[in-house]
Every structure is written in C-alpha cells, then in structure tokens.
Design a protein that fits this description.
alpha/beta, FAD/NAD(P)-binding domain, D-Amino Acid Oxidase, Chain A, domain 2, 2 domains, 8-stranded mixed beta sheet, 10 helices, binds flavin-adenine dinucleotide
C-alpha cells in the first residue's frame, strides 16, 4: 500500500496541472495512470488551440473562464520553460476564421459585433484584404474574421514540460496501474473516500482527485455515482508543408489547421459520439483532410504523414465538471473539459489547488459544479 496526501487519477493535462500546483504548496501528491506515460489519451491527441473567441457565440461564464485560462497560459508557458528548459511552443499569432458562404459570413459578422462590443480583439476581413494579407488561403470566400487574441501551443512539448515540472516538484507518478474502484469508509456520520484501488496496489489518500478524462464516470460507478461523462471522438491528421507553412491557426466550419514546428501542421478534427472507440476511419480522416485542402489549396501537394483519434471528455451541457463531489467527503472531480481541456488545464489546476487547500476556489465556479449532475 502507498500512503499519500493527494491521489490524482489520470496523467492528462488536468491531472498533471493540478498535481503540479498541489506539489508546489508542499503537499505529497501521487498521480496514478494506467498508461505507461503521461498524455496518453485526449491530451496527447489535441491540436493545442487556446482559442476561446473562435467558438464563442455570446458572452457567458464559460467564455469568461476560457479567457482567463488563455491569459494564464502566457504566464504558464514562461514558467514551464524556465523551470524545465522545455519550450511549450506558445504562439500568439492569432486565428483566421473563414466563412464558407454568405449566411456564415453574416453569422461571423454578428459574432464580430458582440465580441468587439465587449472589448475582444477581432477584425472583419473582406476578400480584397484577405487576398493581400493571406494570399495562400482559399479566395472563394465572402469574408473572414481574424481573432488577434487566440493562441496555440505545441501539444507534445507542453505535456512534456508539464511532466518535467511535476517531476521537479516531487510529484510521484505510478504508471501502468488502472484504478478499478474507490474505497470508502464511514466518517463522523458521513462517508469519505479513503483510497483508490488498482489491481494489486491500493493508494490510501487524505484527498482524491479524479481527472481520468472520458473514463471518470466509470471510476465513480464503484461508489454508486452516475457521472454523465461521454467520450467524443476527434480524428486528426498530421502533415508537413515544405513551403510557406502558416504561422497562425486557420479554421472553417468543417476543420482547422494548427501550425507546429519545422513545417509540420496539425489538421483536425471530427466530433463523433461513438463510445469508447479510439480508432480512425477512412471517412473521418478524409473529411478533415478535405476541409484543410479547401482552406489551404497548396496542401493538395502534400500527403498525411500520421492520423490518430482521441476521446474528449464531454458532458451533457458541454461545460466542465470541476469541484468537490457532493455527498462524499475527500473526493474531487475534474473532467468534462470537452474541446477545451488544453486551454483550461492550467487554470483548472490552479483553481482546484486553491479550493482543495483553502476551501475556496477564488472565483465563481457555480456553473461548473458537479452538483448539477450528481446529488
Ligand atoms: C483531436 C482533438 C483535438 C483537440 N484539440 C484541442 C485544442 O486544440 N484545444 C483544447 O483546449 N483542447 C483540445 N482537445 C480537447 C482536450 O484534448 C481535452 O479536453 C483534454 O485533453 C482533457 O484532458 P483530461 O486530462 O481531462 O483527459 P485525458 O487527457 O484523456 O487524460 C485522462 C487520463 O486518465 C487516464 N485514465 C483513465 N481511466 C483511468 C483509470 N481507471 N486508472 C488510471 N488512469 C486512468 C487515461 O489513461 C488518461 O491518461 C482536443 C481533443 C481531441 C481529441
């Protein structure tokens, strides 16, 4: 048996970001991960966009959270680089969002109006301006928005940096162990989670955090919690452009392109509710590849070098599920980050650490509490 102050289940971005913050306060933290290395599921599959403006249809508490997270990444990227020497590849070049047709352009213009109205940096571009500033993208469009504030990171480098920072902060990792159940015990008339159980090893903890992505609901079942987290498959493709790869994110309704380094570009992503099936399909890969070729016609000269799929942790209202588990002591939940887990990871980690150590998250988290589904 291992004894710890905090057991974190899952070494994705959410588990590692929270473990890092907790360890930096001096807590003893053990991360239990079934894969042999960190970032093995959704986090490692992600594009790396830190792009809340791109998908926001109106002001909301979720947008506020995402904007806070985007700002925090500027600091986090600097911190990870100076702590670990690994550059997370944070880029602030912006995102060009192309309208497919007139009705989409009208919708994007409405978005531009409200975003400008609340002070978000967004620019409306007409065809002549697009031709002048972005000659490589398709010119068969009525207009586009440029979100100056949307950023991206290099996913793999960021996860490597998080892992190295965790190690430097003395976070203990237990790889290759699948958590199969939680052990509870009575606690002054209530019930508390006392340990996480794996095949052959129990980790007894003062506090347990479940950050197991799309699988979090499977773990809570062992204590009778039905947490409605659903996997949403995203298929993606990697290719390399020798000449003039873009420096900013390019996007349309059917897909997007995120630059990496050395001409490598990430092309994503489908959004499919097909259960716990992480395989790629010819149809899925072709759909994102076709969208990317429409966005950037010179991609017709390239070939996909890799394709993969990841399972995003979705929730019924598409909002994250963060906070103490209602009705049982010493259990915390952090899942449901759906399409924005890389963006939100550092902020989720910071808020949870503050919450778990002081009893207060330091901002209003009501819309994201587990209580809306459990209790
Ligand atoms: C194709 C694609 C593109 C994406 N692009 C973006 C993007 O551009 N920007 C963005 O912000 N987000 C993006 N996302 C979403 C993002 O990847 C997720 O929201 C985020 O990674 C969720 O992180 P997580 O730590 O909760 O889950 P995960 O990364 O899935 O981590 C959960 C971990 O828990 C482990 N685990 C599960 N069950 C157990 C168990 N029983 N015992 C032990 N370990 C267990 C898993 O092995 C896994 O390592 C994308 C996702 C996909 C698939």
């Amino acid at each position: 048996m291992v004894e710890t102050q905090t057991a974190v289940v899952g070494a994705g971005i959410i588990g590692m970001a929270t473990a890092l913050e907790l360890a930096r306060t001096g807590r003893v933290v053990h991360v239990v991960e079934r894969a042999p290395s960190p970032g093995a599921e959704a986090s490692g599959a992600a594009a790396g966009m830190l792009a809340p403006q791109h998908e926001a249809d109106g002001p909301s508490p979720f947008l506020e959270l995402c904007l806070e997270a985007r700002d925090l990444w500027l600091e986090v990227a600097r911190d990870l680089l100076s702590t670990t020497g690994i550059d997370p590849g944070h880029h602030t070049d912006g995102l060009l969002h192309l309208a497919l047709d007139a009705s989409e352009w009208a919708a994007l213009q409405r978005r531009s109006t409200w975003q400008s109205g609340v002070g978000l940096p967004v620019e409306e571009l007409l065809p002549a301006e697009i031709r002048r500033r972005f000659p490589a993208v398709t010119q068969e469009i009525p207009g586009a928005l440029f979100y100056h504030g949307d950023h991206y990171i290099h996913t793999t480098h960021s996860l490597e940096a998080y892992y190295a920072a965790c190690r430097a902060a003395d976070v203990h990792f237990i790889f290759g162990r699948e958590v199969t159940a939680l052990r509870t015990e009575p606690d002054s008339g209530a019930v508390r989670v006392a340990a996480v159980q794996t095949d052959g090893l129990e980790i007894a903890a003062e506090t347990t955090l479940l950050a197991a992505g799309a699988w979090t609901g499977q773990i809570t079942e062992s204590i009778g919690y039905r947490l409605p987290v659903e996997p949403v498959r995203g298929q993606a493709v990697l290719t390399t452009m020798k000449d003039d790869p873009p420096e900013y994110i390019l996007s349309c309704t059917d897909g997007y392109i995120v630059p990496r380094e050395g001409g490598e570009i990430f092309i994503g992503a489908t959004s499919e509710r097909v259960g716990f099936d992480r395989s790629t399909t010819e149809e899925g890969v072709q759909s994102v590849w076709k969208a990317a070729q429409w966005i950037l016609p010179s991609l017709k000269e390239c070939r996909p070098s890799q394709s993969w799929a990841g399972l995003r942790p979705g929730s019924p209202d598409d909002l994250p599920i963060i906070g103490p588990a209602p009705g049982v002591r010493d259990l915390w939940l952090a899942t449901g980050h759906y399409r924005n887990g890389l963006l939100l990871g550092p902020l989720t980690g910071l808020l949870l650490c503050r919450w778990m150590t002081t009893g207060e998250p330091g901002r209003d988290m009501t819309p994201f509490l587990p209580d809306r589904f459990v209790g």
